Amino acid sequence: MSNISKIGFGQEEDGKGFEITTSEQLESKENRHEYLLRLARALIVFGAPPHRLEEYLTESSAALAIRGQFMYIFGFMVCSFDEILYGYDARHTESGAEVKIVRQSEGVDMDKLDDLRHVFKQVKAGEISCAEGTEKVNLLITRKPQNNTVVMIIGYGFASVCVGTFAFESRPIDLPMQFLLGIVTGTLHVVVTRYVPFSIVFEVMCPLITSFLARAIGSINGGNIFCFSALAQTAIVLILPGYVIMMAMLELQSKKVASGAIRVVQAFLYTMFLALGIAVGTALYGILDRNASSATRCPGASLLPVYYRFIGATCFSLALSVTMQVKWRQCPLAVAIALLGFAVNYLGSLAFPRTPQVFNVIASFAIGVCGNLYSRFGNGLTVGIVMPALTIQVPSAFAASAALLSGLNAADTIHNATEFNSNGAPINNGTSQVDPVYHASLDRVVYTVGISMIELGVAIAIGLFLANMAVYPFGTKKRGGLYGH
């Protein structure tokens, strides 16, 4: 354990002072830099709120007597170290500058992020040295996930089953097929994306494959057995970029304009790929089967009791906790907050049936208040317990706006706009290689799904900021909800 003593205060460019702590024998510059770089990499890969990454590193560098500046831009952390080492007097200071760039793909692992929070606090408080902190961070990065690959894939299947019960009008007979399609999505997302060639086209190929299979299954016996629309939508619900667009809105409202703007564009393009994949996959099966099902509603779904939805929402939040690697001891609280958010969302949809953004704001406000209260009176990673609750708002919003069903409408338009001769071959009149109806339908599906996703992210971000103001009206160093350490 380090022997820590406080030796003075530094001052940032904005005039705000920060307290400097150091050991009697300052650790080497290299050790402190290495710890900060490893901490930055771990925060990104474990899914720390991106609008607070710079603040985490600034606090750590100040505690380590290093004047550091940090800028995060969607997968890149730029670290600038001004080599001013504060010694016991001015004769022991050095000056210089060093710039490092940490490039790391973003991930989500709430279990490891919670453990990283403890290391972050220990090093900041001087309870362990930077070398010890670096070693612990490296162990966290290389440690096996709490839930292995098989459990994760089963979690995808379980989530697909549960989400249909409250968001996409699934009936009990549809649940086994939804589980199989969820397994397909989980396998593609967790396993196959490890291979670079497929990971590049995952956003198009995954919805294309699942929508093709969903329409094939939904067309059995003339579409009188399984519900095609429910199968197609539940299969891809866990790969919707709701988390990405929500983080983008939080970054923009936190004045992180560069990173937030890039994330908005990335989420919009990602959603476009998903929408196009649904349209193409559905249209491909329609070409093979002229009698393919085009039903957009599930017959008999309205007869199911209301508690059927709440049971599905509860199970879905548990499945989300598994896929996000939330600690098992935090799962009950995460499920309870998610159920509260769903209840507010459901009741709000009855009051505002044509404006889903209104009840999304109310639901996210309720979730944010719970998260902030947990941060204020509890001792744990707040983001881990609110992320499942926020993610559960995504399928509900899409069910309310029917955004994904526009892919089916586009597919039907494409199919019906194509003329065939007596032999079943398409007719080309020689005047145009691409039917204008084809362009119009795809433009509509891309616009509808993309705008719906952005509206959802804005609504959730507004609710979270209002919740933060409600619990911390005068501000505090200990932030709550998505601001908590």
How many beta-strand segments? 5
Class from secondary-structure proportions: mainly alpha
Query: In order across it, which strands form the biggest sheet?
Result: 3-4-5
Q: What does the largest sheet look like? A: 3 strands, antiparallel
In angstroms, what is the radius of gyration? 25 Å
Contiguous uncertain segments of 5+ residues: 1-25, 85-92, 418-440, 478-485
Helix content bin? 55-70%
Order of helices and strands: EEHHEEEHHHHHHHHHHHHHHHH
Describe the protein's architecture and organization.
This protein is mostly helical. The protein has 18 helices and 5 strands. The strands form 2 sheets. Strands 3-4-5 form a 3-stranded antiparallel sheet, with helices on one face. A two-stranded antiparallel ribbon has the order 1-2. The radius of gyration is 25 Å and the shape is globular. The N terminus and C terminus are likely disordered.
